[in-house]
Structure formats: structure tokens, C-alpha cells
User: What shape does this take?
Amino acid sequence: MTATATEHAGEAHAVIGSPDLALWVENVTVSFDGFKALNDITLLLDRGELRCVIGPNGAGKTTLMDVITGKTRPDSGNVYLGSRLNDLTELSECRISQMGIGRKFQRPTVFQGHTVFENCELALRANKGVWRNLFTRLSPAQRARIDEVLEIVGLAELRHRPAGLLAHGQKQWLEIGMLLAQEPQVLLIDEPVAGMTQPEMERTADLLRGLAGQHTVVVVEHDMQFVRSIARKVTVLHEGAVLAEGAMDEIQANPRVIEVYLGT
Amino acid sequence: MRERLLQIHSRRGWLAVGIVALAGGVLIPVLNALPESSALHFPDYLVPLFGKFLCFGIAALAMDLVWGYAGILSLGHALFFAMGGYGMGMYLMRAIAGEGVYRSALPDFMVFLDWKALPWYWHGFQSFPFAMVMALAAPGFLALIFGYLAFRSRIKGVYLSIVTQALTYAAMLLFFQNATGFGGNNGLTDFKRIIGFPLQAPSTKLALYVISAAALLLVYIGCRFVVTSKLGRVLAAIRDAELKARFCGFESTNYKLFVWTLSAVMCALAGALYVPQVGIINPSEMQPSNSIEMAIWVAVGGRGTLVGALLGAWFINGAKSWLTAAFPSAWLYVLGGLFVVVTLFLPKGLVGLFELVRRAASRGERAEKTATASAGKVSAGKNGAGAIVAGPAAVEAARVGVEPIAARDNGPPSVPHG
Assistant: This one.
């Protein structure tokens, strides 16, 4: 995965700016029946950064992820991945995923009927074509990669268990493992610790901190304590726009943030 | 490739396939060849009936592939089946040009309608290879176009079922009209020969039976190859969580289109083999109940198992052959009742029932062993047995840090293996 990171870094393009740029959301607006879920929002993410996105309900956090991953088409605005010039808003979910954006859903979404191993196999960065997958078989390298991922998320022992039988926290980890197998440049993670116990939360925090650096990680989370434990930089969304951005301490001292959070 | 092909079954699985294939494809023809006085003689009149069942088996596999594995409940497979049948029927009509009742070069029904020339789409069907290619390609092409439009618009679930049903119904109405050029409501019949062999001869019937058996075996192996491939796992993933599969980079539309079209072609093959054995094809083959019946075969046998589809098709058609003769008016009630019972009590169908029995048996065995091992400590009553079985699961759960409750709530893991 480091290889791909440097590979793409090599393609740096002056128009978009610094080669350190991982994701650029530019003036995106999304409205549903007149309600502006995202209102001319602009967001810049650096390569290898771990960013937390917080905000009250309805602030547009999930819509933002939907736009980046192609699930929702914005009314206006563009999204660029790294130094590439293609506008993601014109691509399908699958193409965006193949380009290197991985997403973890709010509710743990794994393939329940497949085993833990098969879940990772499906997520694996590989040719996703129909014909190819009729004949393909796992190479030893791919097998090793899956083993490595399962080791990282601590599910190696449970590889043959159907994912539907995993405990809630384990499903969350499996989903993160699937993201790793996908080897994305940018990981979007929606509420990773919802419903987790304290020890599970700590493990997840370790996991996410370990991912940053190699990947650009965006975490949407409600649990402020968790955010504090992992965040270096926090973006606060409010009514579809960025309200504040900065280190956790600055954010907590920001009077507008306090007003939004306490006022609602 | 050869290695991959062998992997579609375990050794035991292949053994079972081999035994069934030998019994169906070799033993029955041998028994049929025995003198009629022999007690083991397989009567001639059963040959086409069994041949028909084999064709239904192929259609059931096609249905299971698309419904059981990809989650697309098609109520339009009778259309593909009938189209394959019409392709074969057109050849059979053209093969006897000049020998019909009217001694005309045109098929009888065209003479009857006072048509002077063969419609353009009938040309070429005097050639058997051409007719066979068309019998498979035409339904395949229709499925491709229809599937492309439906899947691209993300039509799924019950909506897709309704649209497929509507398509089939529209086609049926079209075929009912004389002007469409396929013999109207009488369809195509009065066949005499297939590539020179008289259709009434027992040897021809037996040959058709054997060819159907071989086709079924090939289709089964093909389906097995698909479902054990990574593509098969992707299909199941799309069935269970399509959005997630798309976020994993799989263009679900293409996957569904592939399996849908493949399934339609298989179903058309079944129809093409069916027609010479029953001697007629008419638009009533496309009636809604036929498509629904195919879905019932698969549901009763057990979805997503392939073997279940075959069992279901044969079980239901066997029951139908018997009941429609013994109690003609009861059949539809029995069919409906069966469907309700299976849906409510046997979500995994007959295959699920077998598995349940087998698991209960092995559980009983295990419980007995444990009980004798720790004699005196555990009361081996019904509850005791349950507790013992839960034992290893609880231990494993504790080891991996799961609450055993969670494991138990989800029930015993079902192992999808064949």
C-alpha cells in the first residue's frame, strides 16, 4: 500500500496544488427538496492525515460521505482524489472505490453469509470484472495479504466463521479490515465505535491511529471522548457547512461551536 | 483450469454426482433395453416423462442460479423456456416441409391462414444447427436487453418480479395471435422427425432422454463452476448487500446481467429439449403459473443449493403427475398448500430439512457420547443434551471474547457446503 501511495504522489499535478493533497471537496452543494444538506462546503485533506468530522445531527456528515463515495450526486461542486484531475462526482460507486476510496458505513455492513476470510477476499484490491472473477483464484500473495489484514484487526482466529455470527464490535473491525484489504488512499469511517464497549473502543482507537500515515483517514463520530483520543485535527460541520476547523482544544474553546452544541 | 473444474465439488460430492449421473444416464437406458417380460424393465411410456423431468431440472437450476444465488426472483423464466421451445418447434415444422396435411412447403398453420410465403423470421430454421443457435441466442438476447434496462435502472426485488411477469404475459398475448406467425393458440405441433429420426420411435425418445440427461449434467457442472467461483461469492454478496458490494468495487449491474442472461440461455436449452419430447409448444407455456411453478420448485427444494432445485423440480412434478391423474381437482390446492408450508416452516426447503435431520442425528450422537463420558455428572435429558452441545461453543466464544449469548442467539452456524 505504501507503493501505491508513492506511485500516486509521483503524479502530482500543479493545478490542484501540493502533492500532499489527498482529497479535495470543492464547493459542494446538495439539496433534498429544498433543504440544503450540504451548503457550498469545501474541505481539504492532507495525505496521511487523520481527520475527525463532528457536528450535530443533520449537519451533513453522512451526506458528505455519500457525495465523496458517489452514492449521492451533488447539485454543484466537485470532488478530487489526490493529485488526479478526474472529478469523482461523475463516477459510479464502484469506480470511485476502485480509484482508492474506501468507506465504512454507520451500521456495520459486512456480508453476513460469507466467512470472515471471504469478506476480506471480496474487498481485496483486485480486478473487479465479471469475466475475470469467473476464473480467478487467490494468489499466494493475496492470501498473505488477507492473513495480514486479519492479523491487524485481530480476527485471524475467526477466519472461517460466517460474518453474521460475529459480535457487534468484531463486525466493526471486520469492516475496517475489509477497508484495509481494499488498500484505499482515503478511508471514510462513519461512527466506528457506536455500540462498542470501552475496551473495544480503545482497540479501535489504536487501530485507527495505526492506519493514519499510510492512509488518509476521515472519521465521523459522535463520541467526543473518542474523538479527543484520536484526533489531531477536527472539522465541525453545521447546517451543511464548515463551522470550525482546528485542533481539538481550539475547537472546544470556540464560542460558535459551544453555541451550536449547547444551543440545540 | 482442469484443477479449478475438479474443485467445484469435494471428492464425496463428485462421487454423488457420478452415481446419480450413472443411474439416470446409463442405468435407465439399460433397464429400458431389457425385455418387457423382465420385472426390471423400464417401460417406454415413462421415458419421455422422465425426459421431461430432466428438462424441468435444467430450468430449475437456471432459476436457482438467478434467484438463489443472485437474489433475482424472475417470474419470466417461462418465457425463455418457451422461446427455446419455439426455436426447436420451428425447426421441427420446417424439417417436414411438404409432408404436412396440405402437402405444402409452408407449415400447416400458415396454409390454413392462407399465407403465401414464409415470414422472414422463419428462414433458416430448416437447418438444425441454425435453429439450435437461434433457440438459445434469441432468448439470451432478449434477456440481455431486458436485463440491461432493468438492472441499470436499479429495479429489483418485487418490482423486478412484476416486470418480468408482465413481459412474459405480453409475450404470451403476442404469441396467441395468429398474425404473429407462430401458430397462434395452437402453437406448433404435429412434429414428425428430428434430424431424420422419427419422433414416435422409442429409440428416438430414448436418445432424446439421454441427451437431456447429458445436458442436465453439463448445466449442473456449469452452475457449480459459477457458484464456487469468486464470481459466485460476489453474486451472493450483491444479493445480501448490494450497496456494500458496489463500495467494494463490483459493478453489480454487470454481475446481475451476466447471471441473468446465462440463466435465460440455460432455461431456453431446457425448453428446446422439452418440445420434441412432448410434441407440442404453444403460448400457454408462457402463462404466469408456469413461471411461478418454477419458483416454487426452487423454494420447495431449497434456494441457493442447486441440488435443492433439482429435488424440488422432481418432487413437485412427480407429485403433479400422480395427483393430476388421481385427484385432478386437488392439485392446485396441494401446490399452493405446499408452498405455504415450505415458506413458513422450511425456509431452506427440502435440503434444509435433510440438514436439520442430519444435524439432529449427529447432535444426538454427540450428546450421547458426552453423556456416557461424564456419566453420573450430567443428566442426559433433553435439556442436558442442549447444554452439552452449547458447551464447546461457549468455550470458543469465551476464548475469542464474544458473549456466548450472542453466539447462541444467532443459532448454529449454517455451513454452505456441497
